[in-house]
Amino acid sequence: MPSLRANRRGIAALLSAMAAFTVNDALTKIVVQAYPAGEIMFARGLITVAMLGASLAAMRQIRLVPSAARPPVILRSVFDAAASGLFITALGHMGIAELSAIVLASPLIMTMLAVLLFKEPVGWRRWAAIVAGLAGTMLVVKPVPSALDVWALLGLGAAFGAAARDLATLRISPGVPTLAVAMYSALALTSTGLLLGARENWLMLESGALVLLAAAAFLYSIATYLLVLAFRSVDVSVVSPFRYGLLIFSGGIGFLVFGEIPDLWSVAGAGLIVASGIYTLHRETVRHRYLSARPTTEP
Length: 299
Fold this sequence. Notes:
Layout: H1 4-32, H2 37-58, H3 71-91, H4 96-103, H5 106-118, H6 124-141, H7 150-169, H8 178-197, H9 207-230, H10 236-239, H11 245-258, H12 264-293
Helix pairs in contact: 1-9, 1-11, 2-3, 2-8, 2-9, 3-7, 3-8, 4-7, 4-11, 5-6, 5-7, 6-12
C-alpha cells in the first residue's frame, strides 16, 4: 500500500504541475494575442525540443530516441500535437478558466472512447457520470446559435485530442523513456506549427515575446515531469482529484492578469465536470477493489 508520505508527495507534485501548466498557459496567451498561433506553436516547439534535447544529452539517453519511434508513441505524438494546436488557437480568444474547464472533460471522454473502441465494461453509474460531465461541458461551450462560442468548440476538440493521446499513452511500453516520448510530442507540435504557419503571415518575434515563450516552454517541461512524478507509487484515487486544482489556478490567474470573469453557466458547467470526474474516479476505484477481492481459482 502507498504510504501517507508518498500520497502527500504525489498531491504536492500534482498541484505544482497544475500551477506550472496554468502559468505556461498565461504566458502563451499573452504572446498568441499578438502573433499567429502557428508561429507560436513552432517557436515554442523549437525551444521545447532544444530543452528536451539538452536533458536527453545530460542523461545520455539521446541514443534511445530512434528506438522509441514505435506506433503508440507516434500516434500519441499526433494526438498531442492536435490537442495542443487546438488549445493554443482557442487560448487567444477564450478565458483561461473556461478553456481549462472544457479540457478537464478529457478523462470522461477517455472513458467513453475506451468503451466505444476497446469494449471496456462500464456500468450505468459511470455512464450517468459521463453524460453529466459532457452536459457540463456543453454549458461552457453553449451550443446555441445565439450564444455559440466557436473557439469553445476548438477547446472541445482539444479535450478529445487529449483523451485520445492518453489512450495511446497506455499502449506505450514501460521501457520507453519518458523524455523520448516527450521529444516526439515536441517534434510533432513543432511540425504542426510549421504546417499551420504556411497559411499565416508570420511576424518577427520581439525579444520580449521570445523570453515569454522560453519561460512557457520551461514551465511546460517542468509540469510534464511533475505530472509523471505525481502518480508514481501513490494511491491514484487519493491523488487524482487534485487535478481539478487547475480550475482554481486558471480562474485566479485569469482574473488577476486578464480580468476574466466566467459567467454563471460556465461556473455551473465546470462544477458538473469536476463532480462527474471525481465520481467516475470513485466508481473506478470501487471496481478495481471489487475485482482485486474476488477469489481466483486454478483452471
